[in-house]
Each structure stands twice: as C-alpha cells, then as structure tokens.
C-alpha cells in the first residue's frame, strides 16, 4: 500500500505524488470550500508556489460553479486543463547552415555540464555532426575535465583553457574556431557561481555581450537556463535572476527522476512565460527528453 512521504520508484525514478493525493482528497470531501482550501495546500506542496496556486484554485472554483461540475473526474480534468493552459514549451531545433550558439546557464550543481553532454548526444543522434562544446565553466577544474570526457564519449570537439580563465574568452574562441571549421552548433558551459547576485549578473551580461559581438546577424543564439527540479520554488527565483540578466529563451529541467513534486514548471511558466525545452530524468546521456506538456501532466497526475 502507498504511504505518503515514502519514495516510490517508477521506471524513470521517484513517482510524483500529486495524482494520488488529489484522488484521496476528492474521496474525503464533498465539493465545498474546504476541498478548495485543502487543494491549495496540496498544490503548494507540489511546488506550484503560493500566488500561482491561489490563482489556479480561484479559476477552478469559478469553473466548477459556472460549469456545474459535480464529479471527481470532472474536477481532475478541469484542473488539468487549467494547468495545461499555463505550460509553455519549445522545441530547440538548430537552424541549418547557420551558426547556432546555445549558452547553458544555471547555478552550480544543477546539471549544466551533464545536460550539455546529453544535448550533444541528442543532436548528434539527429544527424548533426558539427557540434563543438565550449568549456566556459572555468571556475572548477573538474568541470573542464568532465566536459572533455563527455566530448570524448559523444565524439565532439571541446574548446577549453585552464581553470580560472575568462569564460567569455573561452566562448569567444569557441565561436571563432566553429566559424572557421564551419561547425554549426556551439554548446557553451558556464559556471553560474558568484558570491553575490550583482557579480553574477555582471559576469552573465559580459558573456552575453561578447557572444553578441562575435555572432553575425541571422545566427541563432539561445540562452538556456538549467534548473534542478528538486530545488522547488528556488528554481523560480533562479529563473527570475537569470532572466533579468540576459533574457532567457528556454529552460531545461533536470533531476526530474529525483523529485516527488514537479509543480515548479507551472509557476515558472505562469510567472515568467519562459518555455521548457528538455527534461532530464537521470544521469545517463540518454536520460534527456523533449519537454512535452501532455506527458508532463499525465506523469504529474498519475497515481
Ligand atoms: N538523477 C539525476 N541526476 C542528474 C541529472 N542531471 C544531472 N545530474 C547529476 O547532477 C550532478 C551535477 O551535475 P553537473 O552536470 O556537474 O552540474 P553543473 O551544473 O555543471 O555543476 P557545476 O559545474 O558545479 O556548476 C551530477 O552528479 C550529475 O550526474 C538528472 O536529470 N537526474
């Protein structure tokens, strides 16, 4: 029998518990105000955040009244359709015969380097052999080494300098050599580790401006934030800071296999409107999936 709080493993990791708990809630309530109050608690515990949860539950309350909804199933379906409207997704497709620069951002430990390796493998499998990895995380010597290993595994070139080098210079060199070799996709790693927000923002803006100066009009430059799904609402704060600094184009959510929650996609989508591109579900290179709203909701509501 299922016990709340106990981590149940699915094929891809920890089972989300929203669906089960929602069903239990509906079994124990008639459709009255206390149901909506308990539902608010449940959505907040699933990482949807206070304000967003209140807006969603208000909407549900109104729809239930207006549409004269009276069954458990109808409530679940209505909630799903309200959530579906909030979710933003994007498929990042490198443009043919152009230089594509994907700058991978995020605070330390969220899974940037691993996601770059997974993306290299993903795009490589799709037939793109002109990929180069840029070791812009110069803060940690091991990050450069890690990227070099991933480069060997995926069969792609890695541009790197020593630890402590200027990340902008490494990425600048990568773009220059990619152009010279007619490579079409640069996946650039960054450190995201500054002792305060002002320094972090300055560093990010410097990298952004160096890239803008180096690319040609018409090149495809994307800024992609990596968020660790186990950090819940912190992910929203990180997205706010990085978005303010460099205006993000997309998000990769990692470690989705390690959380029973998974609702922060909703609050980030609703509050910031930044679309999700990929979802990481494990440590292996193959554990990266395109983010698909329908399968995300199906997984979130499973029981
Ligand atoms: N379970 C799981 N682990 C992951 C996933 N993505 C990354 N990891 C693990 O998270 C840890 C940190 O990943 P890194 O790729 O080194 O993170 P980073 O953001 O580059 O870290 P820094 O270089 O310190 O900034 C590693 O142990 C990865 O194997 C995922 O989707 N699921």
Automatic annotation (TrEMBL):
Involved in targeting and insertion of nascent membrane proteins into the cytoplasmic membrane. Acts as a receptor for the complex formed by the signal recognition particle (SRP) and the ribosome-nascent chain (RNC). It is found in: Cell membrane; Cytoplasm. Residues 98-258 form the AAA+ ATPase domain. It is an enzyme of class 3 (hydrolase). GO terms for cellular component: cytoplasm; plasma membrane. It catalyses: GTP + H2O = GDP + phosphate + H(+). Its EC number is 3.6.5.4. One of its GO terms (biological process) is SRP-dependent cotranslational protein targeting to membrane. This is Signal recognition particle receptor FtsY. Residues 6-87 form the Signal recognition particle SRP54 helical bundle domain. GTP binds at residues 106-113, 189-193, 254-257. It is a peripheral membrane protein. Keywords: Cell membrane, Cytoplasm, GTP-binding, Hydrolase, Membrane, Nucleotide-binding, Receptor. Belongs to the GTP-binding SRP family. FtsY subfamily. Part of the signal recognition particle protein translocation system, which is composed of SRP and FtsY. Its main location: membrane. InterPro entries: AAA+_ATPase, P-loop_NTPase, Signal_recog_particl_SRP54_hlx, SR_rcpt_FtsY, SRP/SRP_N, SRP54_GTPase_dom, SRP54_N_sf. GO terms for molecular function: GTP binding; GTPase activity; signal recognition particle binding. It comes from Spirochaeta isovalerica. Residues 99-302 form the SRP54-type proteins GTP-binding domain. Signal peptide: none annotated.
């Amino acid at each position: 029998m299922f016990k709340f709080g106990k981590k149940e493993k699915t094929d891809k990791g920890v089972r989300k518990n929203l669906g089960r708990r929602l069903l239990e809630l509906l079994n124990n309530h008639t459709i009255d105000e206390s149901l909506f109050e308990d539902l608010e608690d449940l959505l907040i515990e699933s990482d949807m955040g206070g304000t967003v949860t209140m807006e969603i539950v208000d909407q549900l309350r109104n729809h239930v009244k207006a549409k004269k909804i009276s069954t458990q199933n109808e409530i679940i379906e209505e909630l799903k359709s309200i959530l579906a409207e909030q979710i933003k997704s994007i498929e990042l497709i490198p443009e043919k015969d152009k230089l594509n620069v994907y700058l991978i951002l995020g605070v330390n430990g969220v899974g940037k380097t691993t996601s770059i390796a997974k993306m290299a493998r993903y795009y490589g499998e799709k037939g793109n052999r002109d990929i180069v990895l840029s070791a812009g995380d110069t803060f940690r010597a091991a990050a450069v080494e890690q990227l070099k290993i991933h480069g060997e595994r995926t069969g792609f070139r890695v541009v790197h300098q020593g630890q402590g080098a200027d990340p902008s210079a490494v990425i600048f060199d990568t773009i220059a050599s990619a152009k010279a070799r007619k490579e079409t996709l640069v996946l650039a790693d960054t450190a995201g580790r500054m002792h305060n927000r002002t320094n972090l923002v300055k560093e990010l803006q410097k990298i952004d401006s160096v890239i803008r100066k180096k690319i040609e009009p018409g090149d495809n430059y994307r800024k992609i934030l990596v968020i660790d799904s186990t950090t819940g609402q912190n992910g929203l704060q990180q997205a706010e800071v990085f978005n303010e600094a460099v205006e993000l184009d997309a998000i990769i959510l990692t470690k989705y296999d390690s959380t029973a929650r998974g609702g922060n996609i909703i609050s980030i989508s609703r509050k910031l409107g930044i679309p999700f591109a990929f979802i990481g579900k494990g440590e292996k290179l193959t554990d990266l999936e395109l983010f698909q709203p329908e399968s995300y909701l199906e997984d979130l509501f499973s029981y």
